[in-house]
Structures are given as C-alpha cells and as structure tokens.
Amino acid sequence: MIKSAMNSNDIDDHLRPEYDLDVSKAVRGKRYDENIRRINMVILEPDVAAALQNSETVNAGLRSMLQFAERTAELTTEANPESR
Asked: Helices marked H in the chain — which ranges?
C-alpha cells in the first residue's frame, strides 16, 4: 500500500535550534508603518515625466532648484540690507 500523505510526526526536523520558524509568532505588516513613512510619492504630469528619466534626475533637478532658491535669497538679502 502506498502512503499518499505524510504525517507531520514523520518529518525529521533538521533545522538548527537558532532558526526559529514558528509562524504563530509572525505579525502581518509589522514594519509597514515604518516603511511607508519613508516613501514620498509624487505624481508627475506627463510632460514633466517625459523630461525626467528616473528618480535620480528628478532629485538632481529639485536639489538644483533648492540651491538656486537659497542663493537667490542670499543675494536678495545682501542687496537689500533693510530686509534684515
């Protein structure tokens, strides 16, 4: 007679004791809140997306604009001492 299904008691456990694979302790989505807070998603209009190939070019462009804005603010403050 062929045994069609194995009994769980028939399986030898060859894992080391430090590998605790007890799924009863698992928590679904345990790190979800931590990871989702790190993601900032922005939807680009199609014309803007066409000009920017990937996230690196988007970030480089935005950093450049931020530096420009900072430098412009410094120049404006230096040119107009009354605004201090």
From this structure: 32-36, 46-51, 55-79
